[in-house]
TrEMBL record:
This is RRP12 N-terminal HEAT domain-containing protein. Transmembrane segments: none annotated. It comes from Ancylostoma caninum (Dog hookworm). Pfam families: HEAT_RRP12_N. Residues 61-253 form the RRP12 N-terminal HEAT domain. InterPro entries: ARM-type_fold (IPR016024), HEAT_RRP12_N (IPR057860), RRP12 (IPR052087). PANTHER family: ARM REPEAT SUPERFAMILY PROTEIN.
Length: 343
């Protein structure tokens, strides 16, 4: 730039002047739901979106866009991970705008397509397709009425998503946890006791995975990943399963790795923070949990583990107090007899 050269400038953007972006000019897409796509351009997945958006006209409604993109997703090949990711990205943008009635009416076909594509991309080095597919599946599952969860096949879908909570790709693990937590903690589809119909299947699967990981060499990371999931859904497990999971978590505390110990105690702490109902955590199990945590007192030299232990133990006492403050927590003799029976 030359000194003294006065450059003309304009403070108004192309949009404020009524113009359109380069992508909109190329794709003729005017659906405002895809504005987020227009803001990202230099990306492999985004570049794959361009021909897709050319095929799907911009004047269509959200429902028609959804139907067209689902058809396009169904036709993708296992050798086209970028194209699959691009379509899945557009779908996860538009699926949130589709009415629940449509998602309910097209539930079986939608889930079948999504599940097939998830299986095809579960071992791909590119994690984007799986991440976006999980995001779509989460929205579709949340839109379903309670009666849909009476089907074992629907409940098994959530169990399959749970398996991805130990995936190698961090974003896949994160999205899988979000989907499982969103489904199991949804108050709309909960049963009369406040628990979700799919909770038992998920809990049994996690229990099996934890036991297998604890019994194998090098299973510490798998243990931590499933504990990370449990801290957000364990309070929605049936009482029998809750007790079994708590026993397994306390068993993991005996592993020498401090990371596993901290994860186990953090899992219990965050679970108890959510104040599990009696259908999940009975008073008797709560008392046993307090007793077990007291007996697992870590050495004071291990400051980090000790801090997590104190949090978990304190929250276990808070839960016990909240469940029956008059009968159980106002009586010091009752607590003492449970914690120290020989005293």
């Amino acid at each position: 730039m030359q000194i003294g050269y006065k450059q003309e400038s304009c403070s108004k953007s192309m949009i404020s002047e009524g113009g359109v972006s380069r992508i909109s000019q190329f794709t003729a897409c005017t659906n405002p739901n895809f504005d987020a796509v227009h803001r990202i351009w230099n990306d492999c997945v985004t570049n794959s979106m361009i021909p897709i958006k050319v095929v799907v006209p911009g004047t269509e409604t959200d429902v028609e866009y959804f139907a067209a993109l689902m058809t396009a997703l169904e036709g993708t090949s296992i050798n086209e991970p970028c194209r699959t990711a691009a379509i899945a990205f557009l779908l996860q943008v538009i699926v949130k705008k589709v009415p629940k009635e449509v998602l309910q009416a097209q539930f079986m076909r939608t889930v079948q397509i999504l599940y097939t594509k998830m299986l095809e991309n579960s071992e791909q080095s590119e994690g984007s397709p799986l991440k976006y597919l999980l995001s779509i599946l989460g929205v579709v599952l949340r839109a379903q009425p309670t009666r849909v969860w009476n089907s074992a096949s629907t409940r098994n879908i959530v169990v399959s998503v749970t398996a991805l909570c130990a995936h190698d790709k961090p974003w896949v693990r994160t999205m899988a946890r979000r989907v499982v937590r969103a489904v199991l903690t949804d108050p709309v589809t909960a049963m009369e006791n406040g628990l979700h119909a799919a909770a038992s299947g998920v809990g049994m699967f996690v229990q099996q995975q934890l036991q297998a990981a604890l019994g194998s060499k090098g299973g510490d990371m798998t243990t931590v990943r499933y504990l990370c999931l449990l801290e957000g859904v364990m309070h929605k497990m049936p009482s029998t399963l809750f007790k079994q999971l708590a026993e397994t978590i306390l068993k993991s505390f005996t592993i020498a790795d401090p990371m596993v110990k901290c994860s186990a105690l953090q899992c219990l702490y965050r679970c108890l923070q959510r104040q599990p109902c009696d259908a999940a955590l009975s008073i008797e199990t709560n008392v046993l949990l307090v007793k077990a945590l007291t007996q697992l007192s870590p050495p004071c030299e291990d400051v980090t583990v000790c801090a997590y232990w104190m949090q978990a133990l304190a929250e276990a006492h808070v839960c016990l107090t909240a469940k029956d403050p008059y009968r159980y927590c106002c009586s010091n003799s009752y607590i003492s007899s449970k914690l120290f029976p020989s005293a």
